[in-house]
């Protein structure tokens, strides 16, 4: 403790000299006094994380979750980062931990392998007021040394850091396959005719949420059918090991198409499935189609091949499972809920509610289960499972 007190002014001066280097990958302590330690921590941990997740996932996380994590960071910590950094170093030198500390009455000390269940902050102390040492992606593997129920201590290159326990799961209990699928049950109880741009920076606008079609025989509203099938799809995908996030689970919501895309983007979805049913003036028209952007989409055209592949896989899966008429993949840049995406997306038009036979079939529980299983088959095929 005394030894470090002596160095504190030097530390602070050095950190100040490096002011403004607080970005990801630029550890705050690039100064002389704790250089070795910092380089060890920063360098090798960063490498480990990259090799686990691959560069493309890393990119997704950055674009998706990083922004909000950064926001948290600045709002929680304020300008006192340097001081926190110094106290973090002291703790590792073997001195008693500074306040706050793990709750000694509830803490369980055991060394175990854990995995992060979402993008999460790793902190220098068990408090949201403490400095964020690093933000790691979902599914980062860590060694936990202690858990008091609220906060867990994790060891990174021999040093102790802290993560909120709710975002950690024992590696041995991880049964999921590592992919996150976000499902958007199309439409909602009441459409919203307010306008929003059809893509980032677009001058063209469309209603936030159209009201959708309805069953000519079943009398079902599209928003009811889409949620029923989406909930079955959630169950099916979870049973197959996917992590699933739902944009909505009730009809009484007001979420625009761009906001639905943002849910998938912020979650860092590996695939975004938008579930819809079709309508036509021609009551004879029937069958399943999927929708993806064109290769020249001005908003997210770089995702074209992934979206195309997802659309192909899901169309084939749904058609094979149901025996429905296979229509085609519609490539269009007119869908706000696609254009706002930064993750691979497809829209599934499950069938025509304006066709008496198809509408009746889609209202059956058994057929809905076939649709869900078929879409899940397509997701499996997309990920090569
Ligand atoms: Zn629709």
Contiguous low-pLDDT stretches (5 residues minimum) are 1-94
Q: Write down the overall mean pLDDT.
A: 80
Sequence of strands across the biggest β-sheet: 11-8-12-15-13-14
- Number of E strands: 15
Structural class: alpha/beta
General shape = elongated
> What summary fits the major beta sheet?
6 strands, mixed
What share of the residues lie within helices?
25-40%
Strand content: 15-25%
Summarize the helix and strand pattern as letters: HHHEEEEEEEEEEHEHEEHEHEHH
Structure ligands = zinc ion
DSSP helical segment count: 9
Give the N-to-C terminal Cα separation.
54 Å
The value of Rg in angstroms is 25 Å
How would you summarize this macromolecular structure in one to three sentences?
The chain is of the alpha/beta class and 385 residues long. It has nine helices and 15 strands.
Explained architecture:
With 385 residues, this protein is of the alpha/beta class. The protein contains nine helices and 15 strands. A six-stranded mixed sheet has the order 11-8-12-15-13-14, sandwiched between helices. A hairpin with a 2-residue loop joins strand 5 and strand 6. The protein is elongated, with a radius of gyration of 25 Å. The chain binds zinc ion. Zinc ion (ZN) binds next to loops.
Summarize the topology.
Layout: H1 2-17, H2 35-77, H3 81-92, E1 108-116, E2 120-123, E3 132-136, E4 141-147, E5 151-156, E6 159-164, E7 168-170, E8 180-185, E9 192-197, E10 205-209, H4 222-239, E11 243-246, H5 257-267, E12 271-278, E13 288-292, H6 304-322, E14 326-331, H7 336-339, E15 345-352, H8 356-362, H9 365-383
Parallel strand pairs: 8-11, 8-12, 12-15, 13-14
Antiparallel strand pairs: 1-4, 1-7, 2-3, 4-5, 5-6, 9-10, 13-15
Helix pairs in contact: 1-3, 4-9, 6-9
Zinc ion binds at residues 186-187, 212, 222, 276.
């Amino acid at each position: 403790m005394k030894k470090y007190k002596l160095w504190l002014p030097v530390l602070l001066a050095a950190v100040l000299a490096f002011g403004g280097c607080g970005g990801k990958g630029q550890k705050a302590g690039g100064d002389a006094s704790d250089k070795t330690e910092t380089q060890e921590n920063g360098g090798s941990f960063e490498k480990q994380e990259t090799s686990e997740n691959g560069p493309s996932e890393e990119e997704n996380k950055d674009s998706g979750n990083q922004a909000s994590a950064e926001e948290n960071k600045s709002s929680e910590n304020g300008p006192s980062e340097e001081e926190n950094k110094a106290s973090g170093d002291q703790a590792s030198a073997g001195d008693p931990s500074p306040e706050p500390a793990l709750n000694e009455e509830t803490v369980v000390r055991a060394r175990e392998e854990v995995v992060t269940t979402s993008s999460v902050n790793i902190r220098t102390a068990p408090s949201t007021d403490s400095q964020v040492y690093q933000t790691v992606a979902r599914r980062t593997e860590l060694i936990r040394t202690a858990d008091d129920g609220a906060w867990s201590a994790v060891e990174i290159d021999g040093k102790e850091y802290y993560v909120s326990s709710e975002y950690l799961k024992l590696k041995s209990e991880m049964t999921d396959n590592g992919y996150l699928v976000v499902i958007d049950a199309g439409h909602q109880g009441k459409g919203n005719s307010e306008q929003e741009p059809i893509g980032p920076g677009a001058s063209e606008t469309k209603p936030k949420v159209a009201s959708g079609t309805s069953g000519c025989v079943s009398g079902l509203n599209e928003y009811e059918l889409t949620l029923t099938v989406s909930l079955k799809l959630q169950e099916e995908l979870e049973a197959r090991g996917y992590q699933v996030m739902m944009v909505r689970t009730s009809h009484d919501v007001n979420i625009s198409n761009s906001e639905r895309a943002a849910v998938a983007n912020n979650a860092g979805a590996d695939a975004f499935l938008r579930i819809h049913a079709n309508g036509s003036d021609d009551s004879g028209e029937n069958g399943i189609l999927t929708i993806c952007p064109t290769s020249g989409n001005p908003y997210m055209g770089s995702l074209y091949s992934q979206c195309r592949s997802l659309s192909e896989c899901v169309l084939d899966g749904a058609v094979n499972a149901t025996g429905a008429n296979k229509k085609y993949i519609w490539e269009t840049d007119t869908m706000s809920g696609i254009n706002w995406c930064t993750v691979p997306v497809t829209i599934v038009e499950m069938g025509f509610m304006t066709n008496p036979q198809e509408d009746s079939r889609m209202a059956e529980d058994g057929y809905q289960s076939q649709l869900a299983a078929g879409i899940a088959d397509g997701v499996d095929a997309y990920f090569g499972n």
